[in-house]
Amino acid sequence: MAIKRFERFSKPLRGxxxxxxxxxxxxxPTMVTLGNLLCGFASIILSMKSANAPATxxxxxxxxxxxxxxxxxxxxxxxxxxxxxxxxTSKFGMEMDSLCxxxxxxxxxxxxIKALIDVQVGFPLPDRFIWPMLAVYVSCAAIRxxxxxxxxxxxxxxxxFGMPSPGAAGCAASLALLIIPGNRxxxxxxxxxxxxxxxxxxxxxxxxxxxxxPFLMLVLGVLMVTRVHYPxxxxxxxxxxxxxxxxxxxxxxxxxxxxxxxxxxxxxxxGYMIFGLINELRFQIFPKSRPAEWVSAGxxxxxxxxxxxxxxxxxxxxxxxxxxxxxxVKDPPLS
Length: 335
Prior knowledge:
CATH architecture of the domain at 22-244: Up-down Bundle
Radius of gyration: 25 Å
Number of helices: 12
Structural class: mainly alpha
CATH topology of the domain at 22-244: Four Helix Bundle (Hemerythrin (Met), subunit A)
Distance between the termini: 65 Å
Strand content: under 5%
Number of strands: 2
Strand order of the largest sheet: 1-2
Order of helices and strands: HHHHHEHHEHHHHH
Helix content: 55-70%
Protein backbone atom coordinates (compact mmCIF):
# COMPACT_ATOMS: atom_id res chain seq x y z
CA MET A 1 0.00 0.00 0.00
CA ALA A 2 2.80 2.41 0.90
CA ILE A 3 4.61 1.64 -2.35
CA LYS A 4 1.47 2.31 -4.42
CA ARG A 5 0.88 5.56 -2.54
CA PHE A 6 4.45 6.69 -3.22
CA GLU A 7 4.15 5.82 -6.92
CA ARG A 8 0.84 7.71 -7.10
CA PHE A 9 2.36 10.86 -5.65
CA SER A 10 5.60 10.59 -7.63
CA LYS A 11 3.80 10.67 -10.98
CA PRO A 12 3.14 14.03 -12.68
CA LEU A 13 -0.18 15.74 -12.12
CA ARG A 14 -2.77 14.56 -14.65
CA GLY A 15 -3.23 16.92 -17.57
CA UNK A 16 -0.54 19.41 -16.45
CA UNK A 17 2.76 17.59 -16.86
CA UNK A 18 3.97 19.22 -13.65
CA UNK A 19 5.72 17.04 -11.05
CA UNK A 20 4.12 16.55 -7.66
CA UNK A 21 5.62 17.65 -4.37
CA UNK A 22 8.77 15.96 -3.09
CA UNK A 23 7.65 12.94 -1.05
CA UNK A 24 11.00 11.72 0.29
CA UNK A 25 14.72 12.40 0.58
CA UNK A 26 17.82 10.22 0.74
CA UNK A 27 18.80 10.08 4.44
CA UNK A 28 22.52 9.20 4.30
CA PRO A 29 23.84 12.03 2.08
CA THR A 30 21.36 14.42 3.71
CA MET A 31 22.78 13.67 7.16
CA VAL A 32 26.32 14.26 5.88
CA THR A 33 25.23 17.60 4.39
CA LEU A 34 23.60 18.54 7.69
CA GLY A 35 26.93 17.82 9.37
CA ASN A 36 28.36 20.61 7.23
CA LEU A 37 25.59 22.95 8.36
CA LEU A 38 25.94 22.07 12.05
CA CYS A 39 29.71 22.65 11.97
CA GLY A 40 29.09 26.12 10.54
CA PHE A 41 26.42 26.81 13.14
CA ALA A 42 28.71 25.67 15.99
CA SER A 43 31.49 27.87 14.60
CA ILE A 44 29.19 30.91 14.74
CA ILE A 45 28.11 30.09 18.31
CA LEU A 46 31.72 29.80 19.51
CA SER A 47 32.64 33.09 17.82
CA MET A 48 29.73 34.81 19.56
CA LYS A 49 30.65 33.30 22.94
CA SER A 50 34.12 34.85 22.71
CA ALA A 51 32.59 38.34 23.03
CA ASN A 52 31.53 37.81 26.67
CA ALA A 53 34.23 35.35 27.71
CA PRO A 54 37.37 36.21 29.68
CA ALA A 55 40.30 37.03 27.46
CA THR A 56 42.13 33.84 28.41
CA UNK A 57 39.20 31.74 27.11
CA UNK A 58 38.07 33.94 24.19
CA UNK A 59 40.96 32.88 21.97
CA UNK A 60 40.25 29.22 22.70
CA UNK A 61 36.68 29.74 21.48
CA UNK A 62 37.93 31.45 18.33
CA UNK A 63 40.53 28.77 17.66
CA UNK A 64 37.90 26.01 17.75
CA UNK A 65 35.56 28.20 15.72
CA UNK A 66 38.13 28.27 12.92
CA UNK A 67 38.74 24.54 13.28
CA UNK A 68 35.03 23.85 12.79
CA UNK A 69 35.14 25.65 9.42
CA UNK A 70 37.61 23.02 8.25
CA UNK A 71 35.45 20.27 9.74
CA UNK A 72 32.59 21.62 7.61
CA UNK A 73 34.83 21.27 4.55
CA UNK A 74 35.29 17.57 5.28
CA UNK A 75 31.52 17.07 5.37
CA UNK A 76 31.17 19.17 2.20
CA UNK A 77 33.62 16.93 0.35
CA UNK A 78 32.06 13.74 1.67
CA UNK A 79 28.40 14.46 0.94
CA UNK A 80 28.87 14.42 -2.82
CA UNK A 81 30.94 11.25 -2.69
CA UNK A 82 28.43 9.54 -0.40
CA UNK A 83 25.60 10.51 -2.74
CA UNK A 84 27.44 8.97 -5.71
CA UNK A 85 28.38 5.83 -3.75
CA UNK A 86 24.76 5.30 -2.69
CA UNK A 87 23.44 6.35 -6.15
CA UNK A 88 21.25 8.98 -4.55
CA THR A 89 22.32 12.21 -6.25
CA SER A 90 19.44 14.62 -6.72
CA LYS A 91 18.56 18.24 -7.37
CA PHE A 92 17.39 18.47 -3.77
CA GLY A 93 20.83 17.44 -2.51
CA MET A 94 22.58 20.05 -4.63
CA GLU A 95 20.28 22.84 -3.43
CA MET A 96 20.61 21.80 0.20
CA ASP A 97 24.40 21.62 -0.11
CA SER A 98 24.51 25.22 -1.32
CA LEU A 99 22.25 26.41 1.51
CA CYS A 100 24.56 24.77 4.05
CA UNK A 101 27.64 26.23 2.35
CA UNK A 102 26.24 29.76 2.71
CA UNK A 103 26.26 29.27 6.49
CA UNK A 104 29.55 27.36 6.84
CA UNK A 105 31.66 29.16 4.23
CA UNK A 106 29.87 32.51 4.02
CA UNK A 107 28.53 33.58 7.41
CA UNK A 108 30.79 31.57 9.77
CA UNK A 109 34.17 32.91 8.47
CA UNK A 110 32.88 36.50 8.51
CA UNK A 111 31.62 36.15 12.10
CA UNK A 112 34.95 34.55 13.09
CA ILE A 113 37.00 37.43 11.71
CA LYS A 114 34.69 40.04 13.27
CA ALA A 115 34.92 38.34 16.68
CA LEU A 116 38.71 38.09 16.38
CA ILE A 117 38.91 41.81 15.62
CA ASP A 118 36.60 42.67 18.53
CA VAL A 119 38.80 40.78 20.99
CA GLN A 120 41.81 42.86 19.98
CA VAL A 121 41.98 46.06 22.05
CA GLY A 122 42.67 49.21 20.05
CA PHE A 123 42.13 47.79 16.56
CA PRO A 124 43.20 50.57 14.15
CA LEU A 125 40.23 50.27 11.75
CA PRO A 126 36.79 51.54 12.89
CA ASP A 127 33.70 49.34 12.71
CA ARG A 128 32.03 51.44 10.01
CA PHE A 129 34.69 50.21 7.56
CA ILE A 130 34.89 46.61 8.81
CA TRP A 131 31.18 45.78 8.54
CA PRO A 132 30.77 46.67 4.83
CA MET A 133 33.79 44.58 3.82
CA LEU A 134 32.54 41.54 5.72
CA ALA A 135 29.04 42.13 4.33
CA VAL A 136 30.45 42.06 0.79
CA TYR A 137 32.11 38.72 1.54
CA VAL A 138 28.87 37.15 2.83
CA SER A 139 26.83 38.52 -0.08
CA CYS A 140 29.32 37.34 -2.69
CA ALA A 141 29.40 33.87 -1.12
CA ALA A 142 25.62 33.59 -1.53
CA ILE A 143 25.77 34.90 -5.12
CA ARG A 144 28.61 32.54 -5.98
CA UNK A 145 26.74 29.48 -4.69
CA UNK A 146 23.51 30.47 -6.46
CA UNK A 147 25.40 30.96 -9.72
CA UNK A 148 27.11 27.59 -9.29
CA UNK A 149 23.72 25.86 -9.04
CA UNK A 150 22.51 27.55 -12.22
CA UNK A 151 25.69 26.71 -14.16
CA UNK A 152 26.22 23.23 -12.70
CA UNK A 153 25.11 21.43 -15.88
CA UNK A 154 27.17 23.63 -18.22
CA UNK A 155 30.27 24.01 -16.04
CA UNK A 156 33.63 22.36 -16.58
CA UNK A 157 34.90 19.38 -14.62
CA UNK A 158 38.52 20.56 -14.33
CA UNK A 159 38.04 24.08 -13.00
CA UNK A 160 35.68 26.52 -11.33
CA PHE A 161 34.60 29.95 -12.54
CA GLY A 162 35.46 32.12 -9.53
CA MET A 163 37.11 31.00 -6.33
CA PRO A 164 35.15 28.19 -4.62
CA SER A 165 33.48 29.23 -1.38
CA PRO A 166 35.28 26.53 0.69
CA GLY A 167 38.60 27.84 -0.63
CA ALA A 168 37.74 31.42 0.30
CA ALA A 169 36.61 30.33 3.77
CA GLY A 170 39.82 28.32 4.14
CA CYS A 171 41.94 31.40 3.40
CA ALA A 172 40.25 33.36 6.19
CA ALA A 173 40.03 30.53 8.74
CA SER A 174 43.62 29.36 8.18
CA LEU A 175 45.01 32.84 8.81
CA ALA A 176 42.87 33.08 11.94
CA LEU A 177 44.31 29.79 13.22
CA LEU A 178 47.79 31.02 12.34
CA ILE A 179 47.64 34.20 14.42
CA ILE A 180 45.43 33.14 17.34
CA PRO A 181 48.12 31.19 19.25
CA GLY A 182 50.56 34.07 18.77
CA ASN A 183 47.93 36.49 20.06
CA ARG A 184 47.47 34.45 23.24
CA UNK A 185 51.21 34.55 23.85
CA UNK A 186 51.36 38.30 23.20
CA UNK A 187 48.35 39.23 25.30
CA UNK A 188 49.14 37.14 28.36
CA UNK A 189 52.85 37.02 28.92
CA UNK A 190 52.30 36.04 32.55
CA UNK A 191 50.90 32.73 31.26
CA UNK A 192 53.80 32.10 28.89
CA UNK A 193 54.98 29.10 30.87
CA UNK A 194 51.57 27.42 30.37
CA UNK A 195 51.31 28.12 26.64
CA UNK A 196 53.17 26.47 23.75
CA UNK A 197 56.14 28.48 22.49
CA UNK A 198 55.46 30.77 19.55
CA UNK A 199 58.31 31.97 17.36
CA UNK A 200 59.10 35.64 17.03
CA UNK A 201 58.13 35.77 13.36
CA UNK A 202 54.51 34.84 14.01
CA UNK A 203 54.37 37.33 16.87
CA UNK A 204 55.66 40.05 14.57
CA UNK A 205 53.12 39.15 11.85
CA UNK A 206 50.13 39.01 14.21
CA UNK A 207 48.96 42.65 14.11
CA UNK A 208 49.69 43.24 10.38
CA UNK A 209 47.76 40.10 9.39
CA UNK A 210 44.84 40.95 11.68
CA UNK A 211 44.71 44.50 10.28
CA UNK A 212 44.69 43.17 6.72
CA UNK A 213 41.96 40.59 7.35
CA PRO A 214 38.94 42.85 6.51
CA PHE A 215 40.58 43.83 3.21
CA LEU A 216 41.38 40.18 2.48
CA MET A 217 37.74 39.26 3.09
CA LEU A 218 36.71 41.92 0.58
CA VAL A 219 39.15 40.52 -2.01
CA LEU A 220 37.97 36.95 -1.38
CA GLY A 221 34.36 38.01 -1.85
CA VAL A 222 35.12 39.65 -5.19
CA LEU A 223 37.13 36.62 -6.35
CA MET A 224 34.17 34.33 -5.69
CA VAL A 225 31.96 36.18 -8.19
CA THR A 226 34.58 36.79 -10.90
CA ARG A 227 35.28 34.54 -13.90
CA VAL A 228 38.82 33.75 -12.77
CA HIS A 229 39.58 30.08 -13.43
CA TYR A 230 40.47 28.04 -10.35
CA PRO A 231 41.49 24.40 -10.84
CA UNK A 232 39.56 21.58 -9.19
CA UNK A 233 42.28 20.52 -6.76
CA UNK A 234 40.53 17.40 -5.49
CA UNK A 235 40.11 15.90 -8.95
CA UNK A 236 43.64 16.82 -10.01
CA UNK A 237 45.22 15.26 -6.92
CA UNK A 238 43.04 12.20 -6.33
CA UNK A 239 41.26 11.25 -9.57
CA UNK A 240 42.60 8.37 -11.65
CA UNK A 241 45.78 6.35 -11.32
CA UNK A 242 48.79 8.22 -9.95
CA UNK A 243 52.49 7.45 -9.83
CA UNK A 244 54.25 6.29 -6.70
CA UNK A 245 56.06 9.65 -6.44
CA UNK A 246 52.72 11.47 -6.58
CA UNK A 247 51.37 9.38 -3.69
CA UNK A 248 54.61 9.91 -1.76
CA UNK A 249 54.38 13.69 -2.12
CA UNK A 250 50.73 13.63 -1.02
CA UNK A 251 51.69 11.58 2.04
CA UNK A 252 54.50 13.98 2.89
CA UNK A 253 52.14 16.93 2.57
CA UNK A 254 49.63 15.22 4.86
CA UNK A 255 52.33 14.63 7.48
CA UNK A 256 53.39 18.29 7.32
CA UNK A 257 49.78 19.42 7.73
CA UNK A 258 49.37 17.18 10.78
CA UNK A 259 52.62 18.35 12.37
CA UNK A 260 52.34 22.07 11.48
CA UNK A 261 48.69 22.44 10.51
CA UNK A 262 48.42 26.16 11.29
CA UNK A 263 51.28 27.18 9.00
CA UNK A 264 50.65 24.60 6.27
CA UNK A 265 46.91 25.31 5.97
CA UNK A 266 47.59 29.05 5.65
CA UNK A 267 50.21 28.42 2.96
CA UNK A 268 48.02 25.94 1.06
CA UNK A 269 44.78 27.94 0.91
CA UNK A 270 46.30 31.37 0.33
CA GLY A 271 48.74 29.88 -2.17
CA TYR A 272 45.74 28.47 -4.04
CA MET A 273 44.17 31.93 -4.14
CA ILE A 274 47.35 33.53 -5.49
CA PHE A 275 47.97 30.69 -7.96
CA GLY A 276 44.56 31.20 -9.57
CA LEU A 277 45.20 34.92 -10.01
CA ILE A 278 48.68 34.43 -11.49
CA ASN A 279 47.51 31.66 -13.79
CA GLU A 280 44.57 33.72 -15.07
CA LEU A 281 46.82 36.74 -15.63
CA ARG A 282 49.28 34.60 -17.58
CA PHE A 283 46.61 33.26 -19.93
CA GLN A 284 45.06 36.70 -20.37
CA ILE A 285 48.42 38.15 -21.43
CA PHE A 286 49.25 35.14 -23.63
CA PRO A 287 45.83 33.89 -24.87
CA LYS A 288 47.34 31.47 -27.40
CA SER A 289 48.92 29.47 -24.58
CA ARG A 290 45.56 28.97 -22.87
CA PRO A 291 44.68 25.25 -22.62
CA ALA A 292 41.94 24.02 -24.94
CA GLU A 293 40.07 22.38 -22.05
CA TRP A 294 39.49 25.82 -20.52
CA VAL A 295 36.84 26.49 -23.18
CA SER A 296 33.39 25.96 -21.68
CA ALA A 297 29.93 25.98 -23.16
CA GLY A 298 29.44 29.61 -22.20
CA UNK A 299 32.60 30.92 -23.84
CA UNK A 300 33.23 31.92 -27.41
CA UNK A 301 36.38 30.53 -29.08
CA UNK A 302 37.78 34.04 -29.49
CA UNK A 303 37.45 34.63 -25.75
CA UNK A 304 39.41 31.46 -25.05
CA UNK A 305 42.32 32.53 -27.22
CA UNK A 306 41.32 30.43 -30.25
CA UNK A 307 41.17 32.00 -33.67
CA UNK A 308 37.68 32.04 -35.24
CA UNK A 309 37.16 30.06 -38.44
CA UNK A 310 36.81 32.34 -41.47
CA UNK A 311 35.21 30.85 -44.63
CA UNK A 312 36.13 32.46 -47.91
CA UNK A 313 33.20 33.45 -50.20
CA UNK A 314 34.79 31.43 -53.03
CA UNK A 315 35.08 28.29 -50.91
CA UNK A 316 32.63 25.37 -51.46
CA UNK A 317 31.99 25.49 -47.71
CA UNK A 318 30.37 28.90 -48.15
CA UNK A 319 27.58 27.38 -50.30
CA UNK A 320 27.06 24.55 -47.81
CA UNK A 321 26.91 26.91 -44.83
CA UNK A 322 24.53 29.25 -46.64
CA UNK A 323 22.19 26.42 -47.60
CA UNK A 324 21.94 25.25 -43.99
CA UNK A 325 21.07 28.64 -42.54
CA UNK A 326 17.44 29.49 -41.64
CA UNK A 327 15.62 31.78 -44.04
CA UNK A 328 15.46 34.49 -41.40
CA VAL A 329 19.26 34.56 -41.30
CA LYS A 330 19.87 34.24 -45.04
CA ASP A 331 17.38 36.93 -46.01
CA PRO A 332 16.89 39.27 -43.07
CA PRO A 333 14.02 41.76 -43.35
CA LEU A 334 14.90 45.29 -44.29
CA SER A 335 14.57 47.78 -41.48
